[in-house]
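Subject: Sanity check before I submit

Could someone independently write out the C-alpha cells for this chain? I want to compare against mine line by line before I put it in a report. The sequence has 380 residues.
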Amino acid sequence: MKAVHFGAGNIGRGFIGAVLQDAGFFVTFADVNQSLIDSLLAAGEYRLTVLTEQQNTKHYSDFTALHSVNQFDDLVRAISEADLVTASVGANLLPRLASAIAAGIRARARREPLLVMACENAINATDILESAIKEQGQLDYEKVLFANTAVDRIVPMQPEGSAPDVFVEEFCEWVIDSSRISDSTIKIPGAVFVKDLAPFIERKLFTVNTAHLTIAYLGQLAGYRNISESLGDPKVFETTRRVLDETSRVLVDRHQFDPKKHAAYVANTLERLGNPVIDDQVARVGRQPLRKLSRNERLVGPAAYSAELGHEPKAILEVVFAALLFRDDGDSEVLELAEIIETQSVADCVAKICGINPSHPLYPSLLEVFSMHKSALNRA
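---
Independent answer below. Compare away.
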C-alpha cells in the first residue's frame, strides 16, 4: 500500500506518517523544506521517541520524500499510484495542495479510488481541500473519495538539531469519518472510523485546543514563555478550568456526552498540557490569532454556542481579550489583527474578526470586549 502525505514536519513524521507506516503503507512525504527533505533522504530513516518515563524509541524507514514544488511531476506520479493522500500543513495552506492532487487524480490508471483526508486542527478540513480540488477543473470523481478527520497528538518543542528524528507524547487519536466511504476502502489499525465525526472534532477542538490556547494567551500576559510554567500559575490554571467548564457545558449539551466521562477527558487534557516533558512555547501555541478568533474556531465557536444556550461565557471572553493583546514579532497575523482594530470601528471588528453579527446573543459581550481593548489602546 502507498500513501502520499503533505507535510514532513513534526506532526507529519511523528503522527500521521508514523501511523501509516505502522499500518503497512510506504509513505511519500511532500514538503517545501529542502533541508528537511535532504536530511530524511540522507538518513534513510528517522527515530520517533515517545516521551514516557522509559522514552520508547522506534525507527521508521518505509518512506521517501519529495519537494512538492520542484519535483511536481514526481509528486503527481506518486499521487496517481497511491491508495491514500493525507495532509498536515495547516488548514490555511490546504488549497495550495489542490493542483498536485487534481493532477494525480487525472493521471490515475488504478480502478480503486484515491482516499483524500486532511488531518488538521480545524472543523471539516477535508471539505476545504475537496472544494479547492474541485476548482481545478473537471475530474473523474469515481477515482477519488474524501473523508474528514479529527486528530490529536501533542508534539512538543524539539531539541535543536534533532531533525529528522522527532519526539512526541504518548497519547494519540486519529478519528476518521466513514459516512462517505465503505468499510473496505482503507485499513488503518491506528485510527478509529465513525459515522458521525462532529462530536469528536468539537470535543478535541473545544477542549484540547481551547485549553492550549487559553494557557498560551494568559501565560504570555503573566510573563511566562512556556506552557507548563504558565499552567503552573494558579490564576492561569483556574481560568483555564473555568474555560473548560464552559466548553464542557456546550459539548455535553450538543453531543449528549456522559458528563463523568467528559470530565475525565478534561482532567486528562489538563494533565497532558501541564506535563513539562511535552512542553511548548506560548508564542508558538498562540500564533495566528486572527484565524483562532474566527467564527468556528476554538474560542468564538464554543462561546457562541454557550450564548445560544443562554449562558454568558465569561471565562472564554477573558481569553478573547487576552488574544487581542498577544504579541509575536514574527507573526504576520498579529500585525494584521492590530491594523484591523486600529482602523475599524468596534462593531466592524467584531464582524470581521469574529464573524458574529448584531442579532447573535454573543454580540453584546464581544462588543464590550473589543470596546475595552480599544479604550485601553487609546489610554496607552
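---
OP: Matches mine. For the report I'm noting this point. The longest strand covers residues 26-31.
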